[in-house]
Amino acid sequence: MNAIRQFVEVKNHTFTIVLPDDFDASSVEVIILPKQQNKIELSDETKTLLDSRLNDYMQNPDEVKDFDLLLDELEQEL
C-alpha cells in the first residue's frame, strides 16, 4: 500500500493535496481528522526521570545502552 500523510492548511473550508508523480492510483480513500496539538502532559516523576536520563547521557555520551534494554528499564521504573 502506498500511503501519504500530510498536514495541510484549510482555507475557506477547502484544501488541496498534490500527489507525487509516482502515485498512480486511480481512486483513493480520504480520511480527514483535525490536527492534534502536540501538547503532552508529563508527571513530575516522569520529568525527573527524563532529566536524570539526559544528564547521564550528557556526562557519558559514548555509553549509550541498547534501545530495547533501555525501554525495558524504563518500563520497570514506571
Shape designation: elongated
Indicate the radius of gyration in whole angstroms: 21 Å
The averaged pLDDT comes out at 86
Number of strands: 0
- Into which percentage range does the β-strand content fall? under 5%
Q: How many distinct helices?
A: 2
Biggest beta-sheet profile: none
Helix-strand makeup class: mainly alpha
The topology string of helices and strands comes to HH
Considering DSSP H and I runs of 4 or more, what fraction of the residues is helical? 25-40%
Separation, N- and C-terminal Cα atoms: 37 Å
Oligomer: single chain
Q: Runs with pLDDT <50, length 5+?
A: none
What does this structure look like?
By secondary structure, the protein is an all-alpha fold. The protein is built from 2 helices and no strands. It is elongated and about 50 Å long. The model has no long low-confidence stretch (mean pLDDT 86).
